[in-house]
Amino acid sequence: MMETQLTNIPNDNAFSLQTFEHAQRVAIMLSKSDLIPKEFRGNVQNTMIALEMANRIGASPLMVMQNLYIVHGKPSWSSTFIISAINSCKRFEPLRFDLTGTGDDMSCSAWTYEKGKTERIEGPAVTMKMAKAEGWVDKNGSKWKTMPELMIRYRAAAFFGRLYAPEIMMGMQTREEILDVQHVDVSEDEKRKEKENQRILFMIQDAKTIEELEAVSQYVPETHLDFYTVKMDELKNGKG
Amino acid sequence: MAKVDWLNYKFHASSIGELMTEPRSGPGLSETCKAHLLACWIKETYGREKDVSNKFIEKGLAVEEDAITLYSRNTKTFYRKNQETLSNDFIVGTPDLFDGPEIRNATTIKDIKSSWSLYTYFSVFVKPINKDYAWQLSSYCALTGAKSAGLVYCLVNTPEQLIWKEKDAIKWKMGIIDPSASEIYMQACEELEKAMIFDDIPMEHRHVEFAIDISKYPIEKAYERIKECRKFLSQLKLYPEYKPKLEKEPLARGT
């Protein structure tokens, strides 16, 4: 059964046995380099993922590693990388921007031509009104306040990429997009609850005596009851 | 524009310290106090908050729950951030943590502060207690009936987003175009991260609690001051009744 599965996986897939082993060797070698960003240095697993991404979009592994950011646990591209990847993917002419209006009326869309064609293709317009309505501008330390012309172009490029070159974006957001929308996805109450649950887990884990463990018993949510019971058994059996 | 009943205005517990500052000379309200009252007047009259956000406040808000976790783990007592806002005839406030069966029947009130760095954290060991915080705790005790109070300082990791902002600030300050090509910038970032992440420092070194003697911050005195402040606010005529004094007269329009 296993043999059948393995032979069914195409050879160009990074997770076929042969390519996996090769990629792993490359990843080990690259991860030892001092020239790669620290998120990948000595981290074969992260380097391997970067290699797979580079392979999929036809970019150099070093370029991917330098432009891949982990923000709040999510991998994201730098906006400049998106623009550069669109420019160098050979499907399009270099990306251009139509910037109109000023202040609140500023609007920007990214556009270009497909290679060898004359039909202009244009990404959705990004407007300052949209940026304000989405709360990107009002976030503390938002670059939309200080560099709106740059940020609006970055966002327009991300919108263009998502629509016309999703294979480059690989379903990921740009670093700026993640920073702009964080705190919007999850309510404050949910976040607090999550932190409380994490706190209880830590306290169960830390408990060195039955008394310490019992002190948190009334707060343990159902989802952590198994963990609590196992820990209690350990303490009762003197393994804590 | 809102009409405010200044004679019954309630002040936030965190602002009582400012109201209680003494004038440099003579009787009356201090300049600090008046400045705060002016901010209250603007906020209530025109509905706009004074923007007082900075990186220290931002971190404090972002890591509040992490700080409570650190404190809970170190004291082996599960704490949950209080969400209930309390008020009496003079003060309104939301205490962070409490000991006791419930907030209105608390025995001890605790306020959690998150330090920005290892240096700001350890500075509280040698500096006198921050009076604003002490007045804040005294106010919370008045609101809850608690008889004792603790001021807790915690040192927890700075969130990724704030570290990024600091890195961006360095980048712009140094005029860096390609960050990965600048050794000095990369070095600065590494140092910055080291200064903002504290996982290598034992957990028990990262919290300190000061018991506050609330009898030194008598709430009755605060109530008296609040009455004076209310009077000041109710008599404040800034527009259109304001008649500028000659030496402070603004430039005439159009000049």
Q: In summary, what is this structure?
A:
Chain A is of the alpha+beta class and about 240 residues long. Chain A is about 55% helix and about 10% strand. In chain A, strands 3, 4, 5 and 6 form a 4-stranded antiparallel sheet that branches. Chain A has a two-stranded antiparallel sheet with strand order 1-2.
Topology diagram in text:
The complex is a heterodimer of chains A (240) and B (255).
Chain A: H1 2-8, H2 17-31, H3 44-57, H4 61-67, E1 68-71, E2 74-77, H5 79-88, E3 96-100, E4 107-113, E5 120-122, E6 126-127, H6 128-133, H7 143-146, H8 148-164, H9 166-169, H10 175-181, H11 188-206, H12 210-214, H13 225-236
Antiparallel strand pairs in A: 1-2, 3-4, 4-5, 4-6
Chain B: E1 11-12, H1 16-19, H2 31-46, H3 55-62, H4 64-75, E2 86-87, E3 91-93, E4 97-99, E5 108-114, H5 118-126, H6 131-144, E6 148-154, H7 160-174, H8 183-196, E7 207-212, H9 219-235
Parallel strand pairs in B: 1-3, 5-6
Antiparallel strand pairs in B: 2-3, 4-5, 6-7
Helix pairs in contact in B: 7-8
Provide structural commentary.
Chain A is of the alpha+beta class and 240 residues long. Chain A folds into three domains: 2-70, no CATH class; 81-180, no CATH class; 188-236, no CATH class. Chain A has helices at 2-8, 17-31, 44-57, 61-67, 79-88, 128-133, 143-146, 148-164, 166-169, 175-181, 188-206, 210-214, 225-236, and strands at residues 68-71, 74-77, 96-100, 107-113, 120-122, 126-127. In chain A, strands 3, 4, 5 and 6 form a four-stranded antiparallel beta sheet that branches. Chain A has a two-stranded antiparallel ribbon with strand order 1-2. In chain A, helix 2 packs across helix 3 (44-57), helix 3 (44-57) packs across helix 4 and helix 5 (79-88) packs across helix 8. The longest helix of chain A has 19 residues, at 188-206. Chain A is flat and about 75 Å long. Chain A starts with a helix and ends with a helix. In chain A, 27% of the residues are buried. In chain B, the strands form two sheets. In chain B, strands 4-5-6-7 form a four-stranded mixed beta sheet. The mean pLDDT of chain B is 91. Chain B has helices at 16-19, 31-46, 55-62, 64-75, 118-126, 131-144, 160-174, 183-196, 219-235, and strands spanning 11-12, 86-87, 91-93, 97-99, 108-114, 148-154, 207-212. In chain B, helix 7 (160-174) runs antiparallel to helix 8 (183-196). Chain B is globular and about 60 Å long. The two termini of chain B are 29 Å apart. Chain B has 255 residues and is of the alpha/beta class. Chain B is 43% helix and 12% strand. Chain A binds chain B through residues 37-38, 66, 71-72, 140-141, 143, 179, 182, 191-192, 195-196, 198-200, 202-203, 206, 212, 215-216, 219, and chain B through 53, 58, 65-66, 68-69, 72-73, 76-78, 80-81, 160-161, 164-165, 168, 180, 190.
